[in-house]
Design goal:
This protein is mostly helical and 89 residues long. The protein has one domain. It has three helices and no strands. Helix 2 (17-58) packs antiparallel against helix 3. It is elongated and about 75 Å long. 2% of the residues are buried.
């Protein structure tokens, strides 16, 4: 297990701490990128499945289900874009 004290003492022990530090940074960056891709995939799947499910519960016909699903998708997208803009300001 690496800790701050061992990273400080490693040069005194003859261990190349720069290589260990750089590899830890690379592994952290790869983990962040992979997690962002996984979370993005989950969000896309939920955006494609939740509105039709809600529309199916509210409508008895295919036409009504398509209209409700489109309206729900537009409302959810608009709310998400609005919240994103508010958080950026």
């Amino acid at each position: 297990m690496l800790s701050a004290s061992t990273l400080i003492l490693q040069p005194a022990w003859g261990v190349k701490s720069d290589l260990i530090y750089a590899s830890m940074l690379v592994m952290s960056a790869l983990a962040v990128v992979l997690l962002i891709r996984v979370v993005g995939l989950i969000l896309i799947i939920s955006m494609l499945t939740i509105p039709p499910y809600m529309a199916e519960r509210m409508s008895n016909s295919l036409k009504g289900m398509m209209i409700y699903s489109t309206v729900f998708s537009l409302v959810f997208f608009s709310c998400g874009a609005f919240l994103c803009l508010i958080c950026l300001i």
